[in-house]
Amino acid sequence: MEEEQILIGKGTWLDKLADTLVKRDQRLGRKLDMIRVESGLGASGIPHIGSMGDAVRAYGIALALKNMGYNAELIAYSDDMDGLRKIPAGLPDWLSQHIARPVSEIPDPFGDCHASYGAHMSSLLLDGLDRVGVKYRFQSGREAYKSGKLVKQIDTILQNSERLGKKIAEFVGQDKYVSVLPYFPVCSNCGRLYTASTEKYLPSEKKVLYTCKGSRIGKQEVAGCGHRGEADITKGEGKLAWKVEFAARWQAFDIRFEAYGKDIMDSVRVNDWVCDEILGHPHPLHVKYEMFLDKSGKKISKSAGNVFTPQMWLKYGSPESILLLLFKRIAGTRHVGVDDVPALMDEYDYYEDVYFGKIKEENPAKLAKLKGIYEYINKLQPPAKPAQHALYRFLAQQASIYPGDPDRNEKVFARLVKYGMAKEKSSDLMNRIALAASWADDNLATDEKFEVQLSDSQRKAVQQLIDIVGEYANVQETPDSAKALQSRVFDTARSNGMEPKELFTLLYRMFLNAERGPRIGNYFLDLGAERVAAVLKRYL
User: Fold this and answer.
1) Which of 15, 63, 127, 370 is the most exposed place for a label (fewest CB within 10 A)?
2) Rounded Cα distance, 245 and 227, in Å
3) What is the pLDDT of residues 358-387, one digit of tens each?
4) How many Cβ atoms are within 10 Å of 512's Cβ, its own excluded?
């Protein structure tokens, strides 16, 4: 007999993690009056969908904690004290003179809309979070250092640097910090980070002594200016190395959860030890996620230039579709690109239909999970009734019939009404038509072909349909002509030993990558005989 599954919260991975987090904190005897989760915002390049995923999923954990009755908040921590290591693809060459300078000290390469390079990059990710309705408390790394919020942690780490250096070498085989302190001063002469090597810490003065010797950053050698100086840790005249910085901020802001990508596993392992053993603060609960890859299988990265940004997604898809992409699971590598938008838009409609009982789901655990994800996408405030749904790809295809027409969206809506696919105009539906029209303009391939395998009888039926459609080349769409064409499709199915439903489903898969769609007679006449025949020929 199968054990009955115990439902935790809403039955999603977010609930399981929130439950694990609370139980862990109870075991550790920690106060639970406010549970903070953190996401680091990279400020050295244009943020992509993966960068946003980190923050959105942390916010999901905060929502699951709120559902359990706890106060929780997301700290969005911008790494804007980091130095620029290389120029991301597409940005101006003059940035090369700013290599190794803190990104918060570099001019904005996009004009003077922001105080610095770092502020501009952080704002792009915050804009994405704002547009999908994620609530967060922003914390600038530069401000944290300058205002002294990390002084206590920096002091403790530097006083324990000898023990720390040995441990880092033991953990990850990097012996750099055996002889150099894990703190990068900003050289007061050349303004660079990473090039100045910290030689001594003066605890009574809270200052480090350094020499600007130069450093290897990525594949390039960055020369030092030779300056010998001192940096005051209370004034933010430098920053901690990554191998210890996470630990410092976890203690300073009492962070209980932070996810991480597998590319920084070693840093997280070291930081956990620093947090526990040096700072005497239990490290946060973690979950490791896989990286987002582009469609060719390459890691999406700021410097490689294959960046797929939240803003690009939101040009074509709703905030709900992007939250579904990020909330439905955390395990496994994800290939993501702009051609995923139609499927995610329709998948959100499926979740909504399940939630409101329009689609039945017999498995109780799956039903709870689908409803739970839907509620988290809607920030625990789901709508009172479902929106009007229309297949995204169908809307894009209809929009493509009217390129450049100022009344295009209205004409697409009129088609929906004619097909019985919409009853009344709503802002939701008109917004969806506008998004699908944008997608059609930029991404609808004229030779698009979906995964459809034809049997011999189906192939024969499709061949016959090409000839039949040809007879309607100059026929206007009227109730009679649409009905006549519809019945010819019925006859074609039967004459090839098929149930009509089988042929109709096949046609919807060929044209819309869907199991259902509008009445074929009207649809084919509206698309036009030439276009219909061209699509059918692709599958032969």
Assistant:
1) 127
2) 25
3) 999 999 999 999 999 999 999 999 999 999
4) 21
